[in-house]
Amino acid sequence: MAELTAVLASTHHPFYYKATTSPADQRPPYAADWQRKVEAYRETLTAAEPDILVMVGADHFHQLWLDNYPQFLIGKQESYDATFYNEEREFGIPKYTLAGDIELSRYMHEELLGKDFDFSVSHELKIDHSIICPIITVRPEADLPIVPIYTNIFVPPLPSPRRFYQVGRAIREIIDSFPSEKKVAAIGTGHLSLELGGPRQFGEHGPDPLFDADAIEWLSTGNVDAILDNVTHASMAGAGNATHGFMDLLLMMGIAGPGVHADYVDHLDLFHTREMYMTWYPNKTPGQLDAAARAAETSEASTGPIYASDPAWDQFRVSQEQA
Amino acid sequence: MSKYYVNKFLFTIDRDPEWVASYREDPRATVLRWEKEVGRWLNPVEQTSWLEFTQEEREALATHDYVWLFEHGAHFFLNLTLFIALFDEEYAAAKGPLAFQTEMAQKLGHWTGRDYPSVAM
């Protein structure tokens, strides 16, 4: 059977490519820290030695559209083009062509339907920055075949948080049962609190740093009960109108499993949002744990959960109390 | 609001550089041309018969009024990205990075702490 060697859940900030490839005199002041943290995080994937990447993201109205927007969709193609014109325009992200893994796509699709998850399928899917950004950050060689999975985090009515978690659990079972000797890594990106096109966008911090504190604790401790008790569509909207992307991080926690502590956790306050990088190793090897420890030393990250009681969050509690 | 049709306008303009340029330079004429050439077309052969803008919607689009569009339930992502395409470069050159996005937030500031208009259809 295939081996799931790593699960990565992170944000996918589309500014990263431009910020870190611009000439030195044009780089924003936060670029160096950001690059250091991302490149350290990358090593947690490298240590998992994957052969295939199962990638979870969401189309940002680049191809999928309101007249027929799927709740969950899987790509089933030999290859995938990446980067739409308006992403090049806005973020400077270049074009890519990624190989697909048709065998795992077909198996995943059939097994998901067999488990009563009614996925749509695409044979003409072009992937957007939700998937190419994590390629840029954690596998810039872009040399591994992918199985793309898209979720609806944009078009209400959305599936419930519980459904995202259940999809994650199903994907885990399917990877574990995939008849192959290959190593599979699952990489999914979403958001912590985020505002786009509203009055809280592009502020000094993300719209709700205390949501972020809870979210990082819940994800990194595998505390699905806390998430399902506390996170609703309304509560996510209260934390920022685009915060529903958190459900893709929940999906990734579902792949890692309930109650499972992450092996690597990092985050970075990047003015209008908080970047987050998390890795679980389902079958921890000494080499993987060593890699995580080395990466954590470089990036000042944690090799275990980060709790909302961490003093790092106190500044936001104080400001909230003052408000 | 004819949310679907307004969102269709934002979506189809944003994904085509020629339409973006046209909408920036002459929004009123672009809205009229879009209604003839794109709005009701499902594919090069088939059309819908019932989609149309209200006069208020047409006027908001013709005047680049993204505040009105937000307040009437246009999708926040489409409303942001298209107007970034129109104005970000000019604002950044004059006032620094993200100046347009910051101004947009300020113009929507009266919605802070309130439930935003729903983007659901």
UniProtKB/TrEMBL annotation, chain A:
EC number: 1.13.11.8
Keywords linked to the UniProt accession: Dioxygenase, Oxidoreductase
Keyword Oxidoreductase in record: yes
UniProt xrefs under Pfam families: LigB
Single Gene Ontology MF annotation: ferrous iron binding
Domain Extradiol ring-cleavage dioxygenase class III enzyme subunit B, first and last residues per copy: 9-258
Protein name: Protocatechuate 4,5-dioxygenase beta chain
Source organism of this protein record: Nesterenkonia sandarakina
Automatic annotation (TrEMBL), chain B:
Lineage: superkingdom: Bacteria
Protein name (database record): Extradiol ring-cleavage dioxygenase LigAB LigA subunit domain-containing protein
Protein source organism: Nesterenkonia jeotgali
Lineage of producing organism: Bacteria, Bacillati, Actinomycetota, Actinomycetes, Micrococcales
